[in-house]
């Protein structure tokens, strides 16, 4: 990336892409970047700077919109004021007459190939901020489309492809949380790019309060991408504002280059692991087994069975507190329900520990039901108007109030202090009445305080499934509950697309009930188990429903996952270019390239008779690999031939695997082939 500035004006990115030779003449690159002037244009083209300025007649969306304390629009003109290169690059610009300074912080990470970028605005007196973009980056000309991400409950991470055209593609999330609907990510493939090849650019805005993205093609053809907090979410005038961190990357290996950069950066730079050397434990979560119906003998029986199947952490979900017999009441009454737990949580936790598992517990800290003791005592603690429409019969607490944060902290700390708890499932099941950056900062402050005082406790970010997944919350948590859909078919698709941004290490995936509770589908245990084994594995069905065969398959796949999790934790997930739309395939590869596993999930019936060959990626062409279809014994009777992978491993070159690809046996839909590869 090359930044250049004319005189003392704001800098602009004049090059961003494949590495250039060191020692390139930057003055030439700057001069050669300028576009011509013709009819119908100003006499000089305003810079597409890190913060395009309205006052310099920029012909598109400005990077900053603000008003003075009395409401007068401010149109600052920033000039160079200083720089600091001690930690990345910090560039400061000032408009002394307006009493404003603007600082850009950019930091490249050569190992993950991510550039982090942030903008900070300060003022000498309180001003009203409407929009502050993180450092504004150009989008490539060699691109026909952009890919952004929407979704819904049980259908997270849906990719949208939009053609570039003059004007703006805006994603504006006014829900007050990251949301299923608006994951803050963008990929820009250049012409011909696929998962595995071509050039691509990737962006992510690490903020949990709702973002605004502007991808704009200017009348002159230049393209800009802006990211910031959703507009007008700063409710109060202030003297200092900052964007969240923007994560940006460039790839020469297709979308996978962006994906693996994001995966590595999340796992190795953003998440802080309380016990980095401890493997990710297999989870058991009791939600879909018992819902609100908590009975100690049932839960202990379930815990015993879960441990026998291989679970290592038992998570007690919603229903343990207040009078929480359904989802209409008791949120914020965070004391143990003595009707269900007459001797407190101790007996259950002791039993869980006796099975060799650790114990985790569910909270929904930012929420309050009108039918709760706390709402009756402090109705003013709730956010929004009295006659607001509720969400799941609940309101959000006003997290900007210190007394609210103290109260929740005290209640949660009481549970964490009284028991040996190593995990919180932290839920956030409704949208806010309005976007409010103070709310997000309040949530972050509460999490930070709890983590400081209980550093051994891990946190999972959940919001009706994947409603709060972003790199801001992942700086404070260690896992995301990707979706409430435990339907293995839906999960296969969701986690495939989510891997464009998320590594295995943080992506929860559970084996659900035989008949899925959110889709009504009945799916074979082998498919359910392998889909969960693609990510951070867990179980969520009632183990009492398992047949002996189902229990045996689940035990076996779980044991496989445990044998492989150490290297898979650090692996890159590459999405394969499957020539059959019915097959979703990925290759998880060790960082040193010495081994990999390919999962080829057959989500539907194929149009053609025989499976199409599946090409692998990112291998050494001249190296020899041993490739084995490890679950070949599950080929059905209708697979009557003898493709070689059905009989045993093969030894072939990386070149052959990448340019010809493997021919898998015929299989039913809703099944998964699993191939292990070793470099010899
Ligand atoms: C949300 C979560 C579920 C479960 C319930 C409990 O819906 O996504 O996993 O924890 O809340 O009420």
Question: CATH homologous superfamily of the largest domain?
Answer: Aldolase class I
* CATH class placement of the largest domain: Alpha Beta
What percent of the residues sit in helical stretches (DSSP H or I)?
10-25%
* Unreliable spans: none
CATH topology title of the largest domain: TIM Barrel
If you compute it from the alpha carbons, what radius of gyration comes out, rounded to the nearest whole angstrom?
A: 26 Å
Descriptive labels:
8-stranded parallel beta sheet, alpha+beta, Beta-galactosidase, Chain A, domain 5, 28% strand, 34 strands, binds alpha-D-galactopyranose, TIM Barrel, 12-stranded antiparallel beta sheet, 680 residues, Immunoglobulin-like
Describe it for me?
This protein has 3 domains: 2-255, alpha-galactosidase from lactobacil brevis (Beta-galactosidase, Chain A, domain 5, Distorted Sandwich), CATH 2.70.98; 283-566, TIM Barrel (Alpha-Beta Barrel), CATH 3.20.20.70; 576-679, Golgi alpha-mannosidase II (Immunoglobulin-like). The protein is of the alpha+beta class and 680 residues long. It is built from 14 helices and 34 strands. The model has no long low-confidence stretch (mean pLDDT 98). Helix content is 22%, strand content 28%. Strands 3, 4, 5, 6, 7, 8, 10, 11, 13, 14, 17 and 18 form a 12-stranded antiparallel beta sheet that branches. It has an 8-stranded parallel beta sheet with strand order 26-25-24-21-20-19-28-27. A 6-stranded antiparallel beta sheet has the order 29-30-31-34-32-33. Bound molecules: alpha-D-galactopyranose. Alpha-D-galactopyranose binds at residues 287, 317-318, 327, 362, 427, 429, 462, 464-465, 481, 484.
């Amino acid at each position: 990336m090359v930044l250049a500035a004319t005189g003392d004006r704001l800098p602009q990115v004049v090059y961003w892409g494949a590495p250039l030779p060191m020692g390139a003449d930057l003055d030439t690159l700057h001069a050669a970047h300028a576009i011509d002037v013709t009819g119908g244009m100003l006499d000089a083209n305003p810079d597409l700077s890190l913060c395009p300025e309205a006052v310099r007649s920029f012909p598109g969306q400005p990077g900053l919109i603000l008003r003075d304390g009395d409401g007068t629009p401010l149109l600052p003109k920033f000039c160079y004021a200083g720089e600091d290169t001690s930690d990345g690059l910090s560039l400061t610009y000032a408009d002394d007459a307006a009493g404003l300074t603007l600082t850009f912080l950019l930091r490249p990470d050569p190992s993950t190939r991510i550039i982090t970028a942030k903008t900070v605005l300060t003022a000498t007196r309180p001003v009203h901020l409407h929009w502050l973009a993180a450092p504004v980056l150009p989008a490539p000309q060699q691109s026909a489309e952009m890919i952004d991400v929407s979704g819904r409950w049980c259908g997270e991470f849906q990719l949208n492809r939009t053609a570039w055209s003059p004007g703006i593609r805006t994603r504006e999330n006014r829900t007050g949380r990251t949301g299923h609907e608006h994951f803050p990510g963008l990929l820009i493939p250049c012409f011909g790019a696929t998962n595995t090849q071509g050039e691509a650019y990737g962006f992510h805005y690490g903020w949990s309060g709702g973002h605004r993205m502007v991808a704009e093609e200017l009348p002159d053809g230049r393209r800009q991408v802006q990211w910031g907090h959703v507009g007008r979410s700063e409710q109060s005038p202030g003297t200092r504002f900052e964007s969240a961190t923007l994560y940006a990357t460039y790839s020469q290996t297709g979308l996978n280059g962006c994906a693996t950069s994001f995966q590595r950066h999340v796992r190795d730079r953003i998440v802080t692991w309380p016990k980095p050397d401890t493997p990710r434990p297999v989870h058991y979560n009791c939600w879909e087994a018992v819902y609100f119906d908590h009975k100690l003998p049932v839960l202990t029986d379930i815990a015993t069975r879960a441990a026998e199947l291989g679970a290592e952490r038992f998570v007690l979900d919603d229903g343990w507190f207040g009078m929480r017999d359904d989802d209409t009441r008791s949120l914020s009454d965070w004391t143990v329900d003595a009707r269900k737990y007459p001797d407190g949580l101790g007996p259950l936790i002791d039993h869980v520990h006796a099975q060799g598992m650790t114990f985790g517990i569910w909270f929904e800290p930012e929420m309050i039901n009108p039918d709760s003791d706390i709402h009756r005592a402090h109705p003013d603690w709730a956010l929004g108007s009295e006659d607001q429409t509720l969400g799941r019969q609940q309101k959000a607490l006003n997290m900007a109030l210190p007394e609210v944060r103290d109260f929740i902290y005290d209640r949660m700390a009481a549970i964490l202090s009284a028991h040996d708890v190593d995990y919180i499932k932290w839920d956030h099941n409704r949208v806010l009445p309005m976007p409010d950056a103070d709310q997000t900062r309040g949530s972050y402050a509460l999490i930070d305080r709890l983590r400081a005082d209980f550093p051994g406790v891990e946190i999972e970010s959940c919001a009706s499934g994947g409603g709060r997944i972003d790199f801001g919350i992942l700086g404070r948590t260690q896992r995301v509950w990707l979706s409430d859909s435990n339907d293995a078919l839906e999960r296969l698709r969701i986690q495939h697309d989510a891997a464009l941004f998320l590594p295995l290490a943080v992506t929860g995936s559970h084996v659900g009930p035989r008949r899925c509770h959110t889709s009504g589908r009945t799916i074979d245990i082998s498919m359910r188990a392998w889909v969960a084994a693609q990510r951070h594995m867990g179980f969520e069905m009632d183990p009492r429903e398992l047949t002996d065969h189902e229990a045996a398959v689940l035990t076996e796949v779980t044991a496989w996952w445990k044998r492989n999790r150490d290297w898979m934790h650090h692996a890159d997930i590459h999405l394969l270019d499957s020539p059959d739309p019915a097959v979703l395939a990925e290759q998880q590869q060790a960082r040193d390239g010495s081994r990999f596993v390919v999962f080829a999930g057959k989500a539907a019936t194929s149009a053609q008779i025989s499976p199409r060959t599946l090409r692998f990626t990112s291998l050494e062409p001249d190296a020899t690999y041993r490739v084995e279809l490890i679950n070949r014994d599950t080929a059905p009777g209708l697979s009557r031939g003898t493709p070689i992978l059905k009989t045993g491993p093969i030894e072939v070159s990386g070149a052959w695997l990448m340019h010809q690809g493997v021919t898998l046996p015929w299989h039913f839909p809703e099944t998964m082939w699993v191939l292990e590869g070793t470099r010899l």
